[in-house]
């Protein structure tokens, strides 16, 4: 697996952007180079969380080894607070950077597949919010969306709108822009999901989600899963009895998400608890820790 750091100028963000890319071109087979591969590769665009950076995935997970085992290229941009949303009222186009420019540039740089079924947008925490929003805005480009411990904060934003606390409102405005414009907009995942009900000709991305029962965002993830299922999306959702809002959980479940996106041999987790083992405990739809039906 080739590991590369890329620095390029973004016309949407009007600044230089750093990303990390892992491309499966030099896989080893024992002490020998494996059969040479040239692509095009299935690709997962992987977004970090709040106050994170692209290299978090390299430092805190074994996503490189997992992606290599499945011949998947992984593109990890370094974001501003992990939330890429368009804010047209202030001429900021972070969402278009993710869904348009980042994809176009990396496809020019690397031998990546251009098929939507080979292209996934994934994230953790607030990066999962971003992945859901931009994946729903560009279903023609992303055939899969992965959300791990998603910080789906629509209701909190609406509460901030109604709040008399300038501090609370200012906090959310740094992410969402003018809060009065969020409801029903492209930043509102409820409104975006409703579009698919109104227009059945829109292609629906497959959805994969996981959130531990001990995560305080669990209810928000259940809500999103329910909305997607009501709109007839193909949804796989896991809610293990262990796991909080933490890197050991994401380390293990990014393995599971990659296995779902590009099935292959599962690697054991390096976390203290092997979350990946939970995915084989029971057949689907029996008990807890398996895809939920709501």
Automatic annotation (TrEMBL):
Q: Which Pfam families match?
A: Esterase
Q: Which UniProt keywords apply?
A: Hydrolase
Provide any one GO MF term from the record. hydrolase activity
Q: Where are the transmembrane segments?
A: none
| Protein known as | Alpha/beta hydrolase-fold protein
Lineage from the top down?
Bacteria, Bacillati, Actinomycetota, Coriobacteriia, Coriobacteriales
């Amino acid at each position: 697996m080739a590991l590369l750091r890329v620095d390029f100028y973004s016309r949407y963000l009007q600044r230089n952007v750093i990303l990390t890319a892992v491309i499966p071109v030099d896989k080893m087979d024992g002490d020998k180079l494996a059969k040479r591969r040239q692509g095009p590769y299935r690709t997962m665009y992987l977004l970090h969380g709040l106050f994170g950076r692209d290299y978090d995935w390299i430092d805190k997970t074994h996503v490189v080894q997992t992606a290599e085992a499945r011949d998947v290229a992984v593109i990890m941009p370094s974001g501003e607070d992990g939330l890429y949303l368009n804010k047209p009222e202030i001429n900021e186009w972070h969402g278009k950077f993710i869904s348009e420019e980042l994809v176009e540039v990396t496809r020019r740089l690397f031998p990546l597949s251009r098929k939507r079924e080979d292209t996934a947008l994934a994230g953790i925490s607030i990066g999962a919010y971003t992945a859901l929003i931009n994946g729903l805005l560009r279903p023609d480009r992303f055939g899969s969306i992965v959300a791990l411990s998603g910080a789906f904060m629509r209701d909190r934003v609406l509460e901030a709108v109604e709040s008399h606390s300038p501090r609370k409102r200012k906090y959310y405005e740094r992410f969402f822009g003018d809060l009065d414009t969020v409801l029903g907009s492209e930043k509102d995942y409820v409104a975006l999901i409703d579009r698919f009900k109104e227009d059945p000709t829109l292609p629906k991305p497959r959805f994969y989600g996981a959130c531990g029962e001990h995560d305080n965002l669990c209810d928000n993830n259940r809500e999103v899963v329910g909305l997607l299922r009501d709109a007839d999306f193909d949804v796989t959702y896991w809610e293990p009895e262990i796991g909080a809002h933490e890197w050991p959980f994401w380390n293990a479940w990014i393995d599971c998400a990659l296995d779902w996106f590009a099935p292959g041999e599962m690697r054991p987790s390096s976390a203290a608890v092997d979350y990946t083992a939970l995915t084989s405990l029971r057949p689907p739809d029996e008990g807890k820790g398996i895809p939920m039906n709501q």
